[in-house]
Amino acid sequence: MSRDLLVYTNILSIVGDILRVEVPVIDGNDANALYGDLVLIEQDNQPVSLAQIIKINRNEVSLQVFSGCKGLSTGVSVRFLNQPMKEI
Fold this sequence. Notes:
Elements: E1 7-8, E2 11-15, E3 18-22, E4 37-43, E5 46-57, E6 60-65, E7 77-84
Antiparallel strand pairs: 1-7, 2-3, 3-6, 4-5, 4-7, 5-6
């Protein structure tokens, strides 16, 4: 499967600045995510914050939300950007 920009909406929990999302296992492989990659958090189809993948456990991905999770609901969606942070 190509690493296109994938969007997931099954939020498992929001605690502090950590958001956990369920990502389906595809073809027997772990989540289609890479440690350290950036993620865009969207609410009502509007970008809210950036996050970084800090843990992957099979089909559960933990994200550290840079602006914190205050005001986020479990109705947010996450879009994997498939690239790590880069120096400019």
